[in-house]
Amino acid sequence: MISFRHIVPMTLCALMATGLCVVLMVDLSIPMLMAFVAACAIVAMIGWRRVHALDLKIALEHLKEAGFKQVQPDRKGMRSDVVVVFGGKQRFELEAKKLTKIVKAVVRARTERPRIIRPPAPLLDAIARTIWSDKTYRRVFAPARADIIFEWQAAIVRGDHRAARRIKYVRGPWIMLWTMAWQVPWSLLKKVVEIVKSA
Amino acid sequence: MLEQLIGRDKYGIELVDGSQGLLSRRSVYVILGRMEDKGFISGREVETPAGESGPPRRVYRVTGHGQRVLAAHEAAFAVLRGAR
User: Under a CB-based contact definition with an 8 Å cutoff, are residues A122 and A134 in contact?
Assistant: First the structure.
């Protein structure tokens, strides 16, 4: 995606290309070419500083939104480009590179979508809901899953993420599978198989 | 299971925890469903408390018929123990 940060260098490149075409078409002498190259270098340096200033301004805006407070934007007497204060106490002297890294991390954290965390055994729940009647699902499978979800959430709340993962991926599906197995009318199925075999 | 439910209403997971290993999470819900069909216990759904999330959980309580069945079972068991 093209952002505002890319417009300045792109504009400069376009102007330089246009200038080169004009020089080539009008006059191809060496002095003219050297003058053109020098002009491009000057414009590039001015543009680079302008982009750097824009980057710094955007970076400071992001930091302000994240709770940092700008103290000094200039570099007089310091090696750093900017000094930021966070929370009123911590003071950081940062170079532009570190500032860029921090801003990138802040922007990434702010734009990252929250993961949707599904409760345990959603597929088995859907299968149980499809195969068995509403009454059976409400009486047998819904309480089983509700208790599994309760246990899983309790593990997350107390910070035991290993247990929460174990409940979600192992214990929960295991309980649901066995509940489904217990609910199958095996004796009836056996009778049906016997009748089919005898017929 | 009926003995545990006489004291107070319980969830399925609490019945398993209080059974000292006699009940299993794999079969308890099916057994509770069958006991409910026979009228030994009654179950009701409890809404999730405010501030918590998750589907409503089912809590069970013993019925009068279930208490009579338990008393009859205990009487029969006492006779069997005495007969030995």
Answer: no
The per-residue pLDDT for range A51-90, each reduced to its tens digit, is 566 666 666 676 666 666 665 555 555 555 666 666 566 6
Taking the C-alpha atoms of residue B58 and residue B32, their distance in angstroms, rounded to an integer, is 11
Contact call for residues A38 and A45 (beta carbons, < 8 A): no
**The residue type at B77:** F
- Residues A151 and A165: beta-carbon distance below 8 Å: no
Chain B environment of A174 (Cβ under 8 Å): 26
Count of beta carbons in the 10 Å neighbourhood of residue A79? 7
How confident is the model over A11-52, as pLDDT tens digits? 766 777 777 777 667 766 777 777 777 777 776 666 666 656
Predicted ipTM of the assembly? 0.79
Q: Is A56 on the interface with B (CB under 8 A)?
A: no
Q: Which amino acid is located at A184 in the chain? A: V
DSSP string, chain B: -HHHHHHS-EEHHHHHHTTTTSS-TTTHHHHHHHHHHHTSEEEEEEPPPTT--SPPEEEEEE-HHHHHHHHHHHHHHHHHHHH-
Mapping DSSP onto H, E and C, the string for A23-69 reads HHHHCCCHHHHHHHHHHHHHHHHHHHHHHHHHHHHHHHHHHHHCCEE
Interface with chain A: mutation pick from B26, B34, B37, B45, highest number of A CBs within 10 Å: B26
The tokens describing A117, both together, are 């965390």
